[in-house]
Amino acid sequence: ELPPLGFSDIIVQEALKLGILEVQKIELLEEELQRRDIELTNVRDPAYHHLQFFRTSPLALDLNNAALAHVHASEELRDNFRLSSLQAGYGLQQINVANTNFANTCQVNPVCQETDVYYRRIDGACNNLNNPIIGQARTTFQRLRPPQYSD
């Protein structure tokens, strides 16, 4: 187990602000590409046709933007504080953003009902009554072993 990194809520909040700015830059770029009618996808690609029929839900887009902001914030903390791969990969997961302005970007644990003992939910929530978020759709994956990337 890694010792806590000890970042103050203010440092975390500033990193998250920078992460959100990066997401906003991407959104502006996407809007500009659409305005100019520039397609970046290959119309012969099966994924292109799939997305013509199955649009990405607003919830999935919101989750993506929140996750992307957290990734950029993590990179900011990693680079500014020269964190090791283990500190960045596992230590940053220990940071609680509940005391920042970004608490609304955290996933809320589902509340299990009595019927969840007998019937499964379509989103996988409460399949494990002891840990109801395990297996739930649109949740983060926790690694069992550290990744081995070149960076």
Task: Lay out the secondary structure.
Layout: H1 9-35, H2 46-53, H3 58-80, H4 85-91
Helix pairs in contact: 1-3
Keywords: Glycoprotein, Oxidoreductase, Peroxidase, Secreted
GO molecular function: heme binding; peroxidase activity
Subcellular location: Secreted
Summarize the structure.
With about 150 residues, this protein is mainly α. It has four helices and no strands. Keywords: Glycoprotein, Oxidoreductase, Peroxidase, Secreted.
Describe this structure in words.
It is a single chain. By secondary structure, this protein is an all-alpha fold. It has two domains: 9-105, no CATH class; 107-137, no CATH class. Helices cover 43% and strands 0% of the residues. The protein is built from four helices and no strands. The chain has helices at 9-35, 46-53, 58-80, 85-91. The model has no long low-confidence stretch (mean pLDDT 87).
Provide keyphrases for this structure.
151 residues; 2 domains; single chain; 43% helix; mainly alpha
